[in-house]
Amino acid sequence: MPEVLDPPRWQAVGLVIDQNQRDFLAGRYSLAEDLLAWFKAVDLFRDTQDERMILREPTSDDLRQHKTWGASLLAEGERLGTEALARGGLPEGAARFKLADVEATLEILYLAQREWHGLKLPDARRREILKAVFHVEEPAT
Fold first, then answer.
1. What's the pTM?
2. Which tens digits make up the pLDDT trace of 70-103?
3. Of the candidates 95, 109, 111, 123, which lies 20 to 30 Å from 36 by C-alpha distance?
4. How far apart are CA 106 and CA 111, in angstroms?
5. Counting beta carbons within 10 angstroms of the beta carbon of residue 115, is it exposed (0 to 12), middle (13 to 18) or buried (19 or more)?
6. What SS3 class is residue 121?
7. Cβ 42 vs Cβ 76: under 8 Å
């Protein structure tokens, strides 16, 4: 049976994330450089998200890849942020970003995970909330 390959964009996202994690664990670069590489991986992930999931209907594979790589970016971002906090922050002038930028980017990733993979509100509960809060009645489908 032939091997099924990931779409090239998701494959690129995974390769970049994996390399960044190997570099961090090996201590190859400074923390600021590791964070910069993480930001670049997030940009690639978000571009791929737009291309594969926003501009077209995502496939089940797109959803799986998005969930996998989003979780990996969250874990890596949390790890890098924790490391920066343990070191007392980023050295002044070491980077053109702040820890607040890391936190904001993590929040964007958490929101994307909830939006695409979080629990869905049951239709009956959604109609109940719309009626109670906004006085809007939506027909049951």
1. 0.81
2. 999 999 999 999 999 999 998 888 788 999 999 9
3. 111
4. 9
5. exposed
6. coil
7. no
